[in-house]
Sequence to fold (800 residues):
Amino acid sequence: MFLKKSSAFCLLAFFILLSAGVPPAHAQNVAESDTTDKVIRVVRFVGNDHVKHNTLETLVRTHTNREFLGIPRFTPWYFIYKLTGKFGEPPTLLDRQTVATDVERIRRYYETIGYLEAEVDTNIVEFKEDKIEVSFLIEEGPRSHIETIAYSGMPQMETERELTDFYRRSALTREQINDTTYRVDRPYIENELSIERNRIITFLKNKGHAAVGRDSILAQVRRSGQDSTQLDILFTVDPGKKYTFGDLYISLAGPDEEINYQQQDTVSGEPYTLGLAKIYLQKEESAQTKFSLLTDQILFKPGETFNNSLYIRSINEFQNLGMMNIRQFGLSEDGSQPDYSGDVIPTMFSLQTLPKHSVNFNIFGMRRYGFGSGAGVTYNNNNLFGKAENLQLGVNGSFEYVSSETLRDIAPDSSQRSFESRFFRSFETRLEYSLPRLNFPFASLDDQPSFTNARTRYTLSFSRSNQLLFDINSDTRFNLRYEVNHNNRFSSFLDLLELDLLDTDPSPQFRQSLEDEFGEDSFELQRILEDFRPQVSSILRYTFRSQRTDIIQRNYGYFSEYSIAVGGNIPFLIDRYIVTPNTIEGTLPSPVSVSSNSLAYSRFVKGTADYRRYIPISNDAVFAYRAFGGFALPYGENTSIPLNQRFYAGGSNDIRGWDIYSLGPGGIPLDDVTINGGQIKLLAQTETRQSLIKNFLSANWIGAWFTDAGNIWYGPRTQVSGGAGTDPATIEERRNILKQGKFFFDEFYKQIAVGSGLGLRLDWEYVVVRFDFAFRIHDLQQGWFNNKKLYFSFGIGHSF
Fold:
């Protein structure tokens, strides 16, 4: 969609005007009694040599009006209010009580990071009529350091080494002075002492001391010798009694509100309990769940020493089944407060299953080359055989009407031919069966502490669709995947077996253009059509993911994902050792001889690295960047990789300003591309997001300025050869075109496409709707800043 050149500037004005009607929260919370009529235009911090301004700004409540992108005194919302007297943001007035409270906040913050003698004062200056500058004057003083740390009162463990290892694993301890005292020699930070106290509590709770709490651990601070900045820390511990797990009570209700347990069972002895302890089970028939599913999720044994981590992890195991809710849990038989007067602690879990069957319908509109619509239905069974097995069956279909004029604009070599309007159709059905545990051959890892929330998935899908240049007659795929979380940040995915049977055809227009260009019997035509032959592929892939961010908001932290895959080896082994022993044909016959087609395959390795960072630059703005690199290399007798394993560029989540599949490889114009997709991809994206309006129409309105750069290229083994009878000049011309799409270290940077523009995001916390308007800063055919068109894209969620 093309808009006028001035649209970007109108868009910025649109953001500002939209935000004019909503004042910020802090402007509404000014206390009336201490409020003056002076407008705060500047807030300064002086003397904070060791603390950043941004950190102090987040502490204090004395603010100016909202600044755009953190630019000092650039407060467009306040200026609009001054002009209109109604819309925009009312002035932020000086409140002396708030300033006084801020002084104490700053002083207290300095105390927590070791500046125990810090002093804070203020200077309020009216530099223009009714315009105030508030300065916080800080004298930091010397910083205190912790010289030693010692522990007193820790209970005796089964082995002395347990305590020694516990002390050494502390982030504070360094050289050991005696059995319980360690040298620290690092700045005093109050939060680190809190973390150490929590670490002691966790350690003791996992060793049976269930009643230990914050009041049980005291940190005594003593100045060391004559140097008042050197501190000694002594943790005094009162661990209390040591407990064992008592009887365990698990009840499971059906999905109905009225509860009546009809089935009971009691389990005791190995491998479920120790000693006389028992597990009491009860459930409703309507739960349709086996008792063994409940006992399988328990990671501790009644009768053994209390371990709080195993107790918490058992709760998580129930939650992650995905087919039940936890109504109540606790360290008592009925869920009341724990009774620590005895030596054993009973535990209880009260659970309720979700409805077993569910059906979802969806209808949607779409806009790609033309306008279209689609619909889908999904059936879900979340407890197929009574042990939380999930079965999901979905069917989706869509169509898109594309006019003859549009086809003429986008089809290659369209000047000499006529086009009729077409319907692009797609259809997909998908069957997924998953279990909340690892199956063969990794079942033994299921109980490992670093393999949590495990899941095994079996997926079978079939799809077919019309594309612009080719049709997918059928794409049948089977996948066996294992998923585990190692902790809150790290997770692994192993696709042990992914088989794909792909049958494609070039569209009639695309085939006709190829025949017009290369000739009906040319070698080049046959080579291009190779991409559309029926293919079979197999993939073994490992993916590692690390993330510490809000996956929807993406306003802090990072997200990274790395994968490595090898493909084509199963068809190769069948070809080499079964179908044609000692001979490599490069194809396999159609399974069970359903057709005369041969299935081509290729062997390849493929790796990707994707890193994204989200940096808050003010309370309302985030700077985000992304770097992506991908490389796929065929090996053996193969010179290409399967069509669905290649890289593509363009689209709303990629390089904005280009439609999906419409950029690259290299500098080849779209009309001259005869080998689709690339084997190398580089991508870099930046985006600055500024909150414009909060809670308007139940959404936060966010403006964005983005820049995307990148491309795809052919790999080193991509080749063009001339067939018999082909004009040498024609072959040379084709080789030159192909050369434009290949990756060369001394040329690739000239083929980096760059798009940039403005966007608007509507953030409803659970979903983000995105509108982007991009210019092609570097159009590979028209050069730098020569393309004046504005391109629109729409997406769900942030682009990265």
In short: The CA atoms of residues 201 and 214 lie 7 Å apart. Residues 96-112 form the longest helix (17 residues). The longest strand covers residues 490-506. Residues 1-32 have pLDDT under 50 and may be disordered.
